[in-house]
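hey m, so remember when u said the tokens were messed up on ur end? i reran from scratch. heres the input so u can diff it against urs
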Amino acid sequence: MSTPQNQSTDLVAVVAQVKRDFAKAFRVLKETRTLSATYTFQAYVRVPGESKVIAVHAPDAWSDDQEIKAIVAGFDGTVYSGGPKSGAAGQRYGKVFEANAGVDVVIHVHGPYLGAWAGSHRVLPLRYAPAQRHTLAREIPIYIDRRGGEANFINETLRRDANTPAILEANGGSTFWGKNIIDVSKYILILEEAAYFQGLAEILGGTKDFGPGVLEQQWSMGHVNRGQAAASEAA
């Protein structure tokens, strides 16, 4: 296989792995009906050691070509692989990658129940045990005023609470971040389920806070640092 222009052999291998991981995540989220009917599902993956991003999007449901294609672009909009408008993919979350060394992937997704919660302009409190298991954050913030830009809102959110795993996009979808496509996508599925159950509970008066000991139990099951978990529960 020849190496595309402006791409090293190592980068080609990274792109190929990103496409495989994305294809698996897309299949699982689609089959579990975690995605909306439009299949809005996009991943932006940091190129290790470089100011570049690999962007992959789920194919449009109406498209005859269902192949997953990748774009490689710089945080500054320089296009290394893709069409003339591909630079926007590098710039979309470039500020998030620059400000947060621990973030290696950002995923934007539309799910039916997360979308419904986002449309209500309400934060999503984490009151479904599996959704709380893997994060010390207690709620998912809502991004309403878009004038400052989504990347800036994410950075502000992470400055307030570095444990926050996602935001809701008012009147739209949700944006998640983390270390890799598969792990982040697993949390997308769990949080969509949380939004579903908590949405159903609204007609019964809403989901209640956890009982005593539940947070510590869930955090230990999710392998969250016990010292952090104890301090967070005490707070």
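this time it looks ok to me. The chain has one domain: 9-205. if urs says something different then somethings off w ur setup not the seq
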